[in-house]
Specification:
Blueprint: H1 2-12, E1 21-27, H2 46-53, E2 56-58, E3 61-62, H3 68-77, H4 108-114, E4 118-124, E5 142-146, H5 182-196, E6 202-207, H6 219-222, H7 231-256, E7 263-269, H8 294-297, E8 298-299, E9 301-304, E10 313-315, E11 319-320, H9 323-331, H10 346-349, E12 360-365, E13 370-375, E14 378-381, E15 397-400, H11 416-430, H12 450-455
Parallel strand pairs: 1-6, 1-7, 2-10, 3-11, 4-5, 4-6
Antiparallel strand pairs: 2-9, 3-8, 7-9, 12-13, 13-14, 14-15
Helix pairs in contact: 5-7
């Protein structure tokens, strides 16, 4: 009823002609099952859940990569990162200028700034370490965060446990903190950006470091989960709860600024949870971060726009992080670049278009010799335990996700024609791609070498 009433009001009231603010909330290494609205019984997330209650929960939300940096490259450009060679992470800081989001690519921030938006980025960047890759060179007017792939939650300076680079303040200088917590700091920084200027629409990308390792939480959050016996899961739950509190503070700030109704909000994780590494859960999906199995690429995916989308809707067709750019630009009445891989989700989420947003979805990580394609409910993928070496003899597996979302049953022998069709479609897509710009063959944080992977063969964890 609320949506029907809104439709009439939208058409009659010129006040809704204003383009929306755009807010992207990205968690890091969060399991697909680790939100209340996703079925979690041990981690309450009331603030994040409110996005599902007041918006749309997409049950088949995908990211474009099973790993941090390439996933972010896809999200912010709206293009598969394989199109421009950004397929895998790299270890440590890279000062060569070779590794990072290519400067030939435009970001969502570039596009929105061109149509009058002020733009801001808070949190983890992980898209290049040298000056030409800095957020302020990639369409963002303002930046507060850390450039590297992870950061200590209690230490502001470079060199702390788990820290990659020093935290950078709005003024571009090191932001030093003590007796504070990184997730809380990022939440406050996001609120600062929102209230800074309401004279024009804004785009804010908030990339939380949590619940990525190092596994660290304050007593305030740990005490909420004293009943969880497993210490790793307990700390992970505390870190997710901190993200939820930060999201709550951001949503409260939107309301205080009168921006709650006309802000288009996305919430998702950059990839699936790494299970043993941080205590996350992807149940009932198989696999984890670093895998092309569903547990590596299927994530929580929530969309709220009170002035433009129905409330409490569950959308069950596959959607992608690549769709965020196209959707935001369409909402902003901006021209969609012809080279985007994503689609405008608004007509689908409103059920004005009853079809599927995507006929096919593709993934590739050349350095690990892994790839996948999904067409309809069918998925073809390489055998991809993360430690496996690329091999011409590797047999592709065929899965029917409609009946086997846990990907337990290989149907390739029974459906050879389907295998050929999906393989041919994948090959045709792969022919349009460039070679990767670098080939760091690493786990999420290390082991560049073939030798390193062989040593770890048989281990469950991703290191």
């Amino acid at each position: 009823m609320r949506f029907a009433a809104f439709t009439v009001f939208f058409l009659c009231c010129p006040c809704f002609a204003a383009v929306p603010n755009v807010l992207v909330l990205l968690s890091d290494d969060q399991g697909s099952a680790d939100l209340g609205c996703q079925g979690s019984k041990d981690i309450p997330t009331p603030h994040i859940d409110s996005l599902a209650r007041n918006g749309v929960r997409c049950t088949q939300g995908y990211v474009s990569s099973c790993m941090c940096s390439p996933s972010r490259a896809g999200l912010l450009t709206g293009r598969s990162q394989s199109r421009f060679g950004h397929e895998i992470n790299w270890e440590g800081r890279d000062d060569t200028g070779l590794r990072g989001l290519p400067v030939t690519e435009k970001t969502l921030a570039d596009h929105l700034r061109a149509v009058g938006y002020r733009t801001g980025c808070v949190g983890k960047w992980h898209l290049g370490d040298v000056a030409k890759f800095h957020p302020k060179q990639r369409g963002f007017d303002d930046y507060f965060g850390h450039i590297g792939g992870s950061h200590d939650y209690f230490t502001s300076k470079d060199g702390g446990k788990g820290s990659t680079y020093a935290l950078e303040g709005w003024d571009g200088k090191p932001f030093e903190f003590a007796n504070d917590y990184l997730t809380d700091i990022n939440g406050r920084a996001a609120c600062e950006f929102i209230r800074r200027d309401n004279t024009k629409p804004w785009f804010l990308y908030v990339a939380f470091n949590a619940p990525h390792t190092p596994s660290q939480a304050t007593n305030k959050y740990l005490e909420r989960f004293a009943h969880i016996a497993d210490a790793t899961r307990r700390t992970y739950a505390a870190m997710v709860s901190a993200v939820d509190d930060a999201v709550g503070s951001i949503l409260a700030e939107l309301k205080a600024q009168g921006a709650e109704e006309n802000t288009l909000i996305f919430y998702l994780s950059d990839n699936g949870g790494p299970l043993d590494r941080n205590g996350s859960l992807n149940t009932p999906l198989s696999g984890e971060k670093g895998h092309m199995l569903e547990g590596g690429i299927r994530v929580p995916y929530l969309v709220q726009w009170k002035a433009g989308l129905p409330a409490g809707k569950v959308y069950e067709n596959p959607v992608s992080s690549l769709d965020i750019a196209s959707t935001a630009l369409a909402a902003a009445n901006a021209t969609l670049p012809s080279n985007l891989d994503g689609v405008n989700l608004i007509p689908y989420l409103r059920e004005e278009d009853k079809g599927r947003p995507h006929e096919a979805m593709y993934w590739r990580m050349t350095a690990r010799g892994i790839w996948a394609i999904r067409m309809g409910d069918w998925k073809l993928l390489t055998h991809n335990a993360w430690h496996d070496l690329p091999s011409a003899k590797s047999k592709a597996r065929l899965i029917n996700l409609a009946i086997d979302p846990s990907e337990r049953h290989d149907l390739s022998e029974e459906n050879p024609t389907k295998v050929v069709a999906l393989q041919n479609a994948y090959n045709a897509w792969a022919m349009t791609l460039v070679e990767p710009l670098w080939s760091t063959d690493a786990g999420p944080e290390g082991d560049k070498s073939r030798q390193g992977r062989v040593k770890r063969k048989g281990m469950k964890k991703i290191h």
